[in-house]
Amino acid sequence: MNVAVDVGHGFTKACSERQRLFFPSLIAQAPAGVDLGEYAANETTQIDRVAYLVGDAARRHATPLWSRDKATDADTLRLVLVAAARLGATGPVTVATGLKPTRLERDHPDYRA
């Protein structure tokens, strides 16, 4: 499977041969909390056995990526992993980063989502 991911300052954009998606470039470890049931539950994403809030769910807990050096930031890699997983990536995966998915699609007609 081929995946293209652009972790932008505002949004993470990604596409595969089958679909495309975007979500806010926000990620934070899920805070420990009191179990209030489904009403107050935030969707978490597990990465290396650690629960994270990603995208909209992380709005109240995350520091925007524009305040960091994205090229060396571990959260940028986590957002790439989340994007690939949300696209359904399993098994051997080729990930292109640093290219906007629309440019990749324009330059490679056989890579349309």
Q: What features would you describe in this structure?
A:
This protein has 113 residues and is α+β, with helices and mostly antiparallel strands. It has a single domain, classed as ATPase, nucleotide binding domain (Nucleotidyltransferase, domain 5). Helices cover 18% and strands 28% of the residues. The protein contains two helices and seven strands, in the order E-E-E-E-E-E-H-E-H. It has helices spanning 74-86, 101-107; strands spanning 2-7, 11-16, 20-24, 27-29, 45-47, 50-54, 94-97. The strands form two sheets. A four-stranded mixed β-sheet has the order 3-2-1-7, with helices on one face. The longest helix has 13 residues, at 74-86. It starts with a strand and ends in a 6-residue tail after the last helix. The model has no long low-confidence stretch (mean pLDDT 81).
Secondary-structure-derived class: alpha+beta
CATH class: Alpha Beta
Termini separation comes to: 12 Å
- The coarse overall form would be globular
H/E element order? EEEEEEHEH
What is the topology, as strand order, of the major beta sheet? 3-2-1-7
Mean pLDDT: 81
Main beta-sheet annotation: 4 strands, mixed
CATH architecture: 2-Layer Sandwich
Number of domain modules: 1
Poorly predicted regions are none
**What is the helix tally?**
2
The CATH superfamily is identified as ATPase, nucleotide binding domain
SS strand fraction: 25-35%
The number of strands is 7
The Cα radius of gyration reads 15 Å
Structure keywords:
single chain, 113 residues, alpha+beta, Nucleotidyltransferase, domain 5, four-stranded mixed beta sheet, three-stranded antiparallel beta sheet, globular
